[in-house]
Amino acid sequence: MAINKTDAASLAADVQSARDLRAKFRTDKDAGIKSAAQEFEALFLQMMLKSMRAATDQDSIMDSETSRFFTGMLDEQIAKDLSRTGSIGLAQILEAQLRRRLDGPDDDAASAASETLARKAQDAYSPTATLAGAWDKNLPLAAFGNPNLRAALERASMQRAAPAAIQDAPVAATPREFVSQMWPHAVEASRSTGIPPQFLIAHAALESGWGQRDIKNADGSPSYNLFGIKAGGSWQGKSAEITTTEYENGVPVTQKARFRAYGSHAEAFADYARLLSQNPRYSGVIGSQSGTEFARRLQQAGYASDPNYAEKLSGIINGPTLRQALIG
């Protein structure tokens, strides 16, 4: 069986890592447990980064076997660095579980240490108080990779956060903060639409200027309308009227229009998900797994009149700003 460059590099690293771990367990059990947990977390993160690369369009003159080889090396190093910082929290959880198994249930000191580690890991996952902190370093990574691993990590993170803890924070100052604040809502919308949450985040970013162009109600309060959804004749909720730009035969025209108003960003994402999943015109959008296809199908369904809408949305989905915001 032929082994390519990437496989060979990974295989060599895995053999050496296994030898190092065995040596640590013989001389220092605590260090061995810690290293094993970090190695697993690094492998998990590397799988996610690899899946993220695979889901991103690679059609460019710079794409080659050599560039993919060195990109794989970079992803491996990023995963190891993230694992060593302890900012993700998965290694701490694994370490606590390993200590429980190896130290035994009757060892009170070991049990107390495990509980302390577990609480620290729980705090790292919880989005309470610091949405721009731990949250954006955990769940955005869960958007990629094996779907079973992704779902398990999302469930663990959601269980550690009380439902009331996910509140609408002040307007995000950076794309990274925007992703952090909107991520839990995007995950919920993803479950009902089958569309990856990072695509939904990108769509909200395009329509709201990364949260900087909020549609205001008449009294100046926010409408939370992240997706520029208009209030048609069937809309029974509140609305906000503003001046907007539409395109007629490719020519921009300024006009007044009424837009839906919500009580929170969570309501905006939920209504957006209902629009895509229940309106027949968007049936081709549901379940899109390619960012470029998602953008193209939205434009074909008539979501916006801008003739360059698909190109703009695809540019955000596949661009460096969203990618950097997702990986923190």
Largest sheet: 2 strands, antiparallel
> What is the second-level CATH architecture of the largest domain?
Orthogonal Bundle
How many domains, in number, for the residues? Answer: 2
| Low-confidence residue ranges | 1-15, 105-169
CATH C-level name of the largest domain: Mainly Alpha
Features:
6% strand, 2 domains, mainly alpha, single chain, two-stranded antiparallel sheet, 13 helices, Lysozyme, disordered N terminus, 2 strands, 328 residues, elongated
Helices and strands in order, then pairings?
Layout: H1 5-27, H2 29-55, H3 65-85, H4 90-103, H5 108-125, H6 131-138, H7 147-160, H8 175-193, H9 197-208, E1 239-248, E2 251-260, H10 265-278, H11 291-300, H12 309-317, H13 320-327
Antiparallel strand pairs: 1-2
Helix pairs in contact: 1-2, 2-3, 2-4, 4-5, 6-8, 8-9, 8-10, 8-13, 9-12, 11-12
Structure, explained:
The chain is mainly α and 328 residues long. It folds into two domains: 121 residues, no CATH class; 134 residues, Lysozyme, CATH 1.10.530.10. Helix content is 60%, strand content 6%. It has 13 helices and two strands. The chain has a two-stranded antiparallel sheet. Strand 1 and strand 2 form a beta hairpin. Helix 1 packs antiparallel against helix 2 and helix 8 packs parallel to helix 10. The radius of gyration is 23 Å and the shape is elongated. The two termini are 38 Å apart. The N terminus is likely disordered.
